[in-house]
Amino acid sequence: MNEKIAILQQWIDESSSIVFFSGAGVSLESGVPDFRSMGNDYFQKYDYPPEAILSRTFFQRKPEEFFQFYRDRILRPLLTAEPNTTHNKLATLEAAGKIRRIITQNMDGLHQEAGSLKVLELYGSVMRNPCPDCERRRTVLEILEHPNVPYCDVDMCGAIFTPEIFLFGDGLDKETMTTAMFDMVNADLLIIAGTSLLEYPAAAFVHLYGRKKMVLINEKEHAMDSRADLFLNASVSEVMSQINVGEKITSS
User: Fold this and answer.
1) Hey, what's the torsion of the CAs at 91, 95, 100, 105, to 10 degrees?
2) How close are the terminal C-alpha atoms of the chain, in Å?
3) Rounded CA gap, 39 and 153, in Å?
4) Domain boundaries, the chain
5) Count of CB atoms within 10 A of residue 64's CB?
6) How many CB atoms lie within 10 A of CB 101?
7) Cα separation of 243 and 9, whole Å?
8) For the segment 65-77, what is each residue's pLDDT rounded down to a tens digit?
9) Mean per-residue pLDDT for 152-158?
10) Topology of the domain comprising 2-32+83-125+172-240
11) Dihedral, 4, 88, 16, 242 alpha carbons, nearest 10
12) Phi-psi group of 206: left, alpha or beta (phi > 0 → left; psi -120 to 50 → alpha; rest → beta)
């Protein structure tokens, strides 16, 4: 592992246009659960699988049940979640002029909380809960404190404050995807961390990046590992904690 860390450090030292692709595993280390990995009590409380609840049709047909899930399983963990080593190290790398873009599948805003500015959120952010019909917005805390469906009460608006996230059944934003692909092909180092690479668009990005120096960091091994120029079988924070900004390390 020390030799691989040394290689990654060298590549970071040599790079000035790094794209870091951030998957669920990055936020998991801050206590934000992957919604697909629910506990044994899940089906005692909910009658539908999470993929069904987090769909556009479910939101439209059963908003009460949607917001019960959204508050309990998506928002409530964020009350205690804080940026971890990876978030903080990426903010430091960005300040040092190393980061071209952080492309994230996560919707928790932890990259921005750590200080990163060059963040592209593929699936949106739960930190934004606007009214679709007027300009009013509600914070995470306001949504959590609401007992039921959060209807907008400004001038008899009556619309539902809607999380600015992409639900199952939505198409991803074309401008966001175009920017992500442009950054990807112009990166001089691609680091993909905390994702299984089994879903779109993560899997597509692996094929899109045609240059050398593609790094995968993940605790679980999978079929895409062989496509990487460097694979580190470890937690993301374990790896990033050993990276120095502006300093070279040697293997032992």
Assistant:
1) 10
2) 10
3) 36
4) 2-32+83-125+172-240, 42-79, 129-162
5) 8
6) 22
7) 6
8) 999 999 999 999 9
9) 82
10) Rossmann fold (3.40.50)
11) -20
12) alpha
**DSSP assignments along the chain, one per residue:** -HHHHHHHHHHHHH-SSEEEEE-HHHHHTTT---TTS--TTHHHH-SS-HHHHTBHHHHHH-HHHHHHHIIIIIIGGGGT----HHHHHHHHHHHTT-EEEEEES--S-HHHHHT---EEETTEETT-EE-SSSS-EE-HHHHHH-SS--B--GGG--PBP--EEPPBTPPPPHHHHHHHHHHHHT-SEEEEES--S-STTHHHHHHH--SS-EEEE-SS--GGGGG-SEEE-S-HHHHHTT--SS------
Structure tokens at 189: 């180092």
If you search the block for the tokens 């062989």, which residue do you land on? Answer: 226
Q: Tell me the pLDDT tens digit for each residue of 19-36.
A: 999 999 999 999 998 866
Q: Positive or negative, the Cα torsion across 208, 213, 219, 220?
A: positive
Provide the residue count of the chain. Answer: 252
pTM of the model: 0.91
| pLDDT averaged over every residue in the chain | 89
